[in-house]
Structure formats: structure tokens, C-alpha cells
Design goal:
Number of domains: 1
Largest sheet: 8 strands, parallel
Shape: globular
CATH topology: TIM Barrel
Strand content: 5-15%
Helix content: 40-55%
Strand order of the largest sheet: 1-2-3-4-5-6-7-8
Number of strands: 8
CATH class: Alpha Beta
Bound molecules: 2-(acetylamino)-2-deoxy-D-mannose
Number of helices: 12
CATH superfamily: Aldolase class I
Radius of gyration: 18 Å
Distance between the termini: 24 Å
CATH architecture: Alpha-Beta Barrel
Length: 287
């Protein structure tokens, strides 16, 4: 699944046409689902109204062709519930929420947050674990405690701790585990993830699908070679300003990719030229 990029104009308004084109481009590239309003969607920088608008538009354009997950996490659990209700209304298949961040919430407080959110919405709930950004590390026992909640259907695991992922897989054969770092897509699948959700897949979907298929076929050499090519791409894109670079790469392919919202800075001439080289280098490496 792609973590959906949201194109903005230079003033920070959502480019609705660009958003629709981004959804369509992803589907055209064979992506099998969208994670809407995640980190990649710059969700934390949007108003409640804008979050709802993005959820609505993505659902309208996707029109049930692929499953959709709505990230609704908020420090205001009432906002999270309101967004969850909206996602239900718009036909989303699941909701997801980042672990409560900024304040050093206790584990019990985090559990209580997910209980409140899960009990308020009949959709399956996916925990979004991204300790590098939330600052909240959880042990494997604590993650297991979250997965034991009856309303929790799974986890988006954006951490490089493949041992934790493997242990969770072992403990919870029936819960859904998504690998979250695109750099570890092959590793995560081998450790037992059911799938992957990523920002770079907005551009690299065909390669990621090949990694998945190579692993399913037991061709680990092929998976490794593809992951090397993907990581050469990701390393350079991150260095160039990840979301701006991905959006610019959409624009190079006929999609109105737009800009990021401030305080993200626009790509200058130099970084645009670098982005063109990164994309062509990636395509050449795959030929
Ligand atoms: O959660 C994404 N995380 C962020 C998923 O964007 C913060 C990843 O897809 C990364 O962007 C990607 C590049 O580091 O792995």
C-alpha cells in the first residue's frame, strides 16, 4: 500500500486535482491499497476539515477499487473519533492511529487511548508504531498488549527492529502486520509481515510488488537485488528532501504532485535537477 502523498499549492492549500491524480497514478501502478492521512500525507499539519476532505476525496477517486486505511490519530481523542466516524461514512476498510505522542504518556494511557478509539468505531483498528517520530518506544510485551485488544486488527510497524516484528508475527498469526520502513520491505516480509505500507511506493510500486512476488516465490536473491536498487533510490531521495522529491517525481510523470506545506521548504532548482537524476538512475538500474 502507498502512504498517500497530498499535493499542496505554494500557499499550502490542498490541490484537489493533484490529489485525485495521485490516487489514480498509484492505482495505475498496481498498488493494492492506500494509507490515507499518514505521516506522508502531512496529516499532522492539516485542520480537521482538511483531514476529512482528504479522506473523502481519496475514497471518491478510489471508488472501492482498492482497500483504504484512514489514519485518524490525534492528541485529541475526540478528533480521532470524529475522523474515524467520517472514515466509516466514506467506506474506509480500516482505521489506524499513531501512538499518542509529544507528552510522555504512560503505557496505560496509550492502551486507554486505543480502547476509546476502537470502541467508538466498528472498523478494524491498526496501531501505527513509529517510535523514531513519536519518540515513544514500546517493548515487544507492550506491543503485544496492544495487539491483544479485541478491536485492534493489526499494526503498521515502522521500526527497524525486525526481531520485534518476528516475535509479534509468532504470537499473533491472525493479526495483520504491515512493514513500515520501505528500506526494510524485503526484511520485514521475511520476518513475517503480511504486507508493507510506504511513502516511496507512490513512485516505486512496481518494484515493491516484484519484491513481494520474489519472496513469495522463494527467490531471495532477486528480492535482495531489487531491495538494493530500491534503497539506492530511497537513500538519495531522503537526502534530497523525501516528500518534496517524491512529489516532484510525480510531476515529472504527468501528475500534479505539488509542494509540501510549510515549514517544509520547496525544492530549489538544484534539488529538482537532483530529483530528475535520482529517478532516471532508478529506472536505469531496473532495466
Ligand atoms: O511510515 C514512512 N514513514 C515516514 C512510513 O514517512 C515517516 C516510510 O515509508 C518512510 O518514508 C520510508 C523512507 O524512509 O521508509
Amino acid at each position: 500500500m502507498s502512504a498517500l502523498l497530498v499535493p499542496f499549492d505554494r500557499d499550502g492549500s490542498i490541490l484537489e486535482k493533484g490529489l485525485a491524480e495521485t490516487v489514480e497514478f498509484n492505482i495505475g501502478q498496481g498498488i493494492e491499497g492506500l494509507y490515507v492521512n499518514g505521516s506522508t500525507g502531512e496529516n499532522l499539519m492539516l485542520s480537521t476539515l482538511e483531514k476529512k476532505r482528504v479522506l473523502t476525496l481519496a475514497a471518491e477517486v478510489a471508488a472501492k477499487r482498492i482497500p483504504l486505511i484512514a489514519q485518524v490519530g490525534s492528541l485529541d481523542v475526540r478528533e480521532a473519533r470524529e475522523l474515524a466516524a467520517h472514515a466509516l461514512d466514506q467506506g474506509y476498510d480500516a482505521i489506524s492511529s499513531v501512538t499518542p505522542f509529544y507528552y510522555q504518556f504512560s503505557y496505560d494511557e496509550i492502551v486507554s487511548y486505543y480502547r476509546t478509539l476502537g470502541e467508538g468505531c466498528p472498523l478494524p483498528l491498526i496501531v501505527y508504531f513509529i517510535p523514531a517520530l513519536t519518540g515513544k518506544q514500546l517493548s515487544k510485551q507492550q506491543l503485544a498488549g496492544l495487539l491483544e485488544l479485541p478491536t485492534v486488527a493489526g499494526i503498521k510497524f515502522t521500526s527497524d527492529n525486525m526481531y520485534q516484528l518476528e516475535r509479534l508475527r509468532r504470537l499473533f498469526p491472525d493479526k495483520i502486520i504491515y512493514n513500515g520502513y520501505d528500506e526494510l520491505c524485503a526484511s520485514g516480509l521475511i520476518a513475517g509481515a503480511d504486507g508493507a505500507i510506504g511513502s516511496t511506493f507512490n513512485i516505486t510500486a512496481p518494484v515493491v510488488l516484484r519484491i513481494r512476488d520474489a519472496i513469495a516465490a522463494g527467490d531471495l536473491r532477486a528480492a535482495q537485488a531489487l531491495q538494493h536498487a530500491l534503497n539506492d533510490f530511497i537513500e538519495q531521495a531522503v537526502d534530497n528532501g523525501l516528500y518534496q522529491t517524491l512529489k516532484y517525481m510525480l510531476s515529472l510523470q504527468g501528475v500534479q504532485g505539488g509542494h509540501c506545506r510549510a515549514p517544509f521548504l520547496p525544492l530549489g532548482e538544484e534539488r529538482q535537477s537532483r530529483a530528475r537524476d535520482i529517478l532516471s538512475g532508478f529506472k536505469n538500474a531496473l532495466d
